[in-house]
Structures are given as C-alpha cells and as structure tokens.
Amino acid sequence: MNSKQLDYDNIIYKSLKILAQGLYPYIEAKMREKYSDNWLETAKCVLKNQQGLKKCNLDETLRKDVSLQLKLIYKLWDSIFENHLSQPIKYKVRLSKSKVKKLLDIRNEVAHLSSFSKDKTCKSVDCIIQLLKAIDAPEAEDVENEKQEVLQLLSKSAQITKSKSKKSLFVEIHLI
User: What are the sequence ranges of the domains in the chain?
Assistant: First the structure.
C-alpha cells in the first residue's frame, strides 16, 4: 500500500469521525423532539441487536460511533428524520434515505479496511459534507478542509504524471 493510498484512507476515516461529532447533537435534538427524555431508551430499542451495546453506556457510545448514528437515522427515517432531511430549504441540501445507506456502506468499507481510490475518496467526502450541510452542522467546514487535502493530492498526482509524460516524450524524441 502506497502513501497516497494511506492518505486517501486516512481522509475518509477523519471525515467520518468529524461526521460523528456533527451528527450526535442533531440526532439528540430530533429524538428529544419526538421522545423527550426517553429518547435514549427508544434509541436502545431501535439499535438493540447491535454489537457491544449491552455492555456500554449508549449515550457515550452514540456520541462517537458514526455507524450507530447512521443506523439510527436510517431505521427512524420515516418517523423522525425524513421531514427535516428530505426538504430543501434555502441553502440546505436535500438528502435521501439512500444517501444515509451509502454513508453506512462507506463506513463499513473503512471498518473492513477497504482501500479508497482518489475518485471514491472525493465522492465519499462529498457525501459526508452533504449530510453535515443538511443538518446545518459547523463541522461541514472541517470536512471541506479534508476535501481540499484530497484535491491537493490529486493535483500533485497529476503534476507528477504530467512531468513523467514530458520526460518520456523528451527521451523518445531524442532517441529518434
């Protein structure tokens, strides 16, 4: 695995951690609107079959675990999250349940150590940014910075490729 590959994978990992930070307050607020102080009990029931939940503090785990957060949004989409996330309002992005599923898939690929190409990295980061913007999370800017890092890697890669092509062409011309 080369260093660029590690950079792409690391960018996705960091972006998912930032997503978890931005999602928790949103999830808590929306769940409290519907279930008031019983929101954690409801979340526990919805997530009852998830690994490791019985042995830990759900509130603490939910704050950090983007997988659980996305599963909660996905499972409660129709009853809680659809009304807010699927309505485009001014500069807010319209989000679909399938986009939440896509984010879950991205998270699972990271957890199972799949490698990300530069294109897949860009698309994944864009998807994360869309969700953060849809919930008006300030963390969207942090992920935008991660995206800039991807674009810088792409630019460097393009410059190296272009330089190698010029050198190759120069050598070919001189050999003729």
Answer: 3-175
pLDDT band at 119 (very low <50, low <70, confident <90, very high): confident
Count other Cβ atoms within 10 Å, centred on residue 147: 18
3-state secondary structure of 42: helix
Distance CA 9, CA 22 (A): 20
First CA to last CA distance, the chain: 37
pLDDT at 137: 92
Q: Side-chain half-sphere of 169: how many Cα atoms within 13 Å?
A: 6
Question: How many Cα neighbours within 13 Å face the side chain of 85?
Answer: 25
Cα–Cα distances (Å) from 65 to 61, 120, 165, 173, in that order, read 6, 22, 45, 57
**Exposed, middle or buried: residue 138 (CB in 10 Å: 0-12, 13-18, 19+)?**
exposed
Element (H, E) at 118: helix 118-134
